[in-house]
Amino acid sequence: MAVDLTPGPVAAELARRTARFVRDTVVPVEEANGGVLRSDDERRELQAAARAAGVFAPHVASEFGGHGLDMRDRAFVFEEAGYSLLGPLALNCAAPDEGNMHMLEAIATPAQKEQYLRPLATGGTRSCFAMTEPAPGAGSDASALTTKAVRVPGGWRIDGHKWFITGADGAGFAIVMARTSGAPGEAGGATMFLVDAGNPGMKIVRHIETLDESLFGGHAEMVFDNCVVPDDAVLGEVDEGFAYARVRLGPARATHCMRWLGIARRAQDIAVRRASTRELFGSRLAELGMAQQMIADNEIDIAAAHGLILQACADLDLGGPSGHSTSIAKTFCAEAVWRVVDRSLQICGALGVSGDVLLGRFLREVRPFRIYDGPSETHRWTIARRVVRRLDAEDAR
Q1: Domain residue ranges in the chain
Q2: For 72-98, what is each residue's pLDDT tens digit?
Q3: Which of the residues 76, 90, 150, 345 has an alpha carbon 20 to 30 A from that of 314?
Q4: Closest of 359, 188, 336 to residue 271, by C-alpha
């Protein structure tokens, strides 16, 4: 299937306005804060500015205050938002909230959408997605899920241990994956629950120090101990949680790629400006062959990543199989973005290592992307497995 490499007219205009808003409004805030924002008041101020600029919530349906873009058109807007570490936060399309909005739109009841999706879409609250557990629990292998939920009068009791839950600090609610049937290692038997902040059975026990710091709310370790929720806290159907996780994770991998590609372009712009003005050995740095190679390799990685993202988005929009293309896009983009930022820092030399530009911060932020949403090794395993199965199926005909 041919993939259109240009945005629709609505998305093109929104991408232009987003680019202008991010450069004029968000980048100065990012540079003043070293790329890390921790104040909820500042988050709300940025989001109010994005709303006033008409670029807020590009991914959410219009009935919830968004622009309702499909995946392909989101690619162009999210990439412009990602030109700053704080751009996605300003547009309310940052992880984990963006992925949670997507899933709530897809599977929540009308009442749940009003209670959880609407305030999340408008920026009135934040959320987290609590699936990952300490070893030997759920991680890259979600089927290892150990957190349990059992029926009690009027609802469910959740007990378990979660860690590396992004955005948990200050979140208004959590979407919690718990096992309602089967045993760890079995492919089915998970259910998603909506748990409000303030539930005495859900507690943050530790804020985890990490290489990256720009994801709002950080990463937390959580304990669920006699966490009782009502029947209407079930999101979707009982025992269908793993299927719903796939509804969330494929698009979330693609949107992560979009946002980080924006940072790769930003790093390239910083490096090219430096190379164009820095003079040494009798010429501009940009006229020296080794610097030119790094600049060219950056452009190649950026272009290839953009194309793979659009292919994955086309597959997602069609509603057919998309696991293969999203795994390919995620693996390539995570590594390509790292290469681009690393080369850009190298081109800038001591300036790149210094705090005078944010390349060092970018490098710390993009490195974990090779682990988040499935490490590159896991994706390569699934990609290879699909290829072998496809050949086996062809040979069996």
Answers
A1: 9-94, 127-235, 242-395
A2: 999 999 999 999 999 999 999 999 999
A3: 90
A4: 359
